[in-house]
Specification:
The complex is a heterodimer of chains A (about 400) and B (about 80). Chain A has about 400 residues and is of the alpha+beta class. Chain A has a single domain, classed as Cytochrome P450 (Cytochrome p450, Orthogonal Bundle). Chain A is built from 15 helices and eleven strands. The longest helix of chain A has about 30 residues. Chain B is built from two helices and four strands; from the N terminus they run E-H-E-E-H-E. Classes of the chains: A alpha+beta (about 400), B alpha+beta (about 80).
Chain lengths: ~400, ~80
């Protein structure tokens, strides 16, 4: 079943990438058109590089789980969407931009912290954080911003408590991560923000070596670092990426997911009638919104054969998670939010050995944050026209900058 | 295709590869009756014989595993008796 190779399109003009969403609840409309053509689509990104875009569910999963799929940002063809991002990733080597066996070694220092069981034990603490932040929201005059006054406060508090970042450093952390996560930040700006973040983590490493607490940084410092299984420089990077990835995705998902449910009252009714549907609802919201759409930047170190063609060795590619999650062959009527879908194999957390290490925490946080929000603020409603909400289009993780709400 | 059930009459056997496991915990979510994670987050097989009532869960776990650490196969027929 040989399909046309991607060079069937090589003479076509590459599509400019990344593209903006016309609706915050769906990936860019152009993905559907790309998916209709056989083979990967050639794109041109701001750096001038021309990676392939993958848009089919099967192609995305096949490519991301292929052993020749490299995440190493030092490769010349690595398709970083911002210059800052490429330079920083190549220097710092966060484990999301590493290949096995280095990646495996670092990832295994972390996976034990995020098991299904460990995350389940965090539920009461996350519920308490969400209730506290819902009270904070309710104490404000309306309209209030759901992003900064609820979602960001929940996500930063949860990840900082898990890692052991003291509460007095929270505001500082919230400020620097907003710079480091923005795609339009220059290499210099990202570097300065990361410098500040690293100074904070560096100080915490010393403090936790002296006086360990019941937190992730303490365990890494007194385990792998003390045993010299990881350098201090690498540990700083790994803690930095865990902090960042752990809060930005959740911060962006909570307001989007809340709005997605509000605009689908029939789906909200299902949840009211059967709260047991919440875990499935969270997975459907993750699929539907796919905020980490463009995180999966890769290079093919050998030819990667796909259902629809081949990614040639040496070429960069982006396996579009939102496109895969809206592939009608995998998810019938993909634009519809349907909490009763039985398929759970969406790729909102990626696929392959890099699939999100904190996904179990992410699911729980999202469930609790939404349940508490709708319980405590039952009259929640959007207080601005949807089309006027500013998109965080310059961020690697999709989200809305501001979501004014009333109740 | 892993999602194709080999058929209701065939016994299924699971195997899990610790070295390949990425610790995502998807198998535990899909089939908590068949899988667990050890303290390091890696796959623990609770039973290699899939009970008839857990076939769908087992196939889901194989499909959801992001790293290909779980394999499923039909149990070879019992050797003929004497």
């Amino acid at each position: 079943m040989t399909q046309p190779a991607p060079d069937a399109h090589a003479s076509d003009t590459p599509v400019a990438f990344p593209q903006a969403r016309s609706c915050p609840f769906s990936p860019p409309e152009s993905y559907a058109r790309m998916r209709e053509r056989p083979g990967p689509t050639r794109a041109v990104i701001p750096s001038g590089k021309e990676p392939w875009l993958l848009t089919g569910f099967t192609d995305v999963r096949t490519a991301l789980s292929h052993p020749a799929s490299s995440s190493d940002a030092r490769h010349p063809a690595f398709p970083a969407l911002g210059d800052g991002e490429q330079q920083v990733a190549a220097e710092l080597r966060p484990f999301i931009r590493m290949d096995p066996p280095d990646h495996t070694r670092v990832r295994r220092m972390l996976v034990g912290e995020f098991t299904v069981r460990r995350v389940r034990e965090m539920r009461p603490a996350i519920e308490a954080i969400c209730r506290e932040q819902a009270e904070h929201l309710l104490s404000l005059p309306t309209p209030a911003d759901l992003v900064s006054e609820y979602a960001n406060r929940v996500s930063t508090t949860v990840i900082c408590r898990l890692l052991g970042v003291p509460m007095e450093d929270l505001e500082f952390f919230r400020r620097i991560t907003s710079v480091a996560g923005a795609r339009n930040s220059t290499a210099q700006e990202v570097g300065a923000a990361l410098g500040e973040l690293f100074a904070l983590i560096d100080r915490l490493i010393d403090e936790k070596a002296e006086d360990p607490g019941d937190d992730l940084i303490s365990r890494l410092v007194n385990g792998p670092l003390a045993r010299e299984e990881i350098t201090r420089h690498s540990l700083l990077s790994q803690i930095g990426i865990t902090l960042n990835a752990g809060h930005e995705t959740t911060r962006n998902m909570i307001p989007l997911a809340a709005l997605d449910l509000l605009r689908n009252p029939d789906q909200m009714d299902l949840l009211r009638d059967d709260p047991g549907l919440w875990p499935a609802a969270v997975d459907e919201l993750l699929r539907h919104l796919s905020v980490a759409d463009v995180i999966t930047l890769r290079v093919a170190t050998e030819d990667i054969p796909l259902e629809s063609g081949t990614i040639p060795a040496g070429d960069g590619y982006i396996a579009l998670l939102g496109a895969a999650n809206h592939d009608p062959e995998a998810f019938p009527d993909p634009e519809r939010l349907d909490l009763t879908r039985t398929q759970r194999n969406h790729v909102a957390f990626g696929y392959g050995v890099h699939q999100c290490v904190g996904q179990n925490l992410g699911r729980l946080e999202l469930e609790v944050a939404l349940r508490v929000l709708f319980e405590r603020v039952p009259g929640l409603r959007l207080a601005a026209p949807l089309e006027e909400l500013p998109q965080r289009s310059a961020s690697t993780i999709f989200g809305l900058d501001e979501v004014p709400v009333a109740w | 295709m892993v999602r194709d059930d080999p058929g209701g009459d065939t016994s299924l056997r699971l195997s899990a590869d610790h070295d390949v496991c990425a610790g995502a915990g998807q198998c535990v979510r899909a089939a908590p009756d068949l899988f667990d994670q050890d303290d390091d987050g890696l796959v623990l097989l609770l039973t290699s014989d899939v009970p008839p009532g857990s076939r769908a869960h087992a196939l889901d776990a194989v499909d959801l595993c992001p790293s290909g650490a779980i394999a499923i196969r039909s149990r070879p027929p019992a050797p003929p008796g004497p």
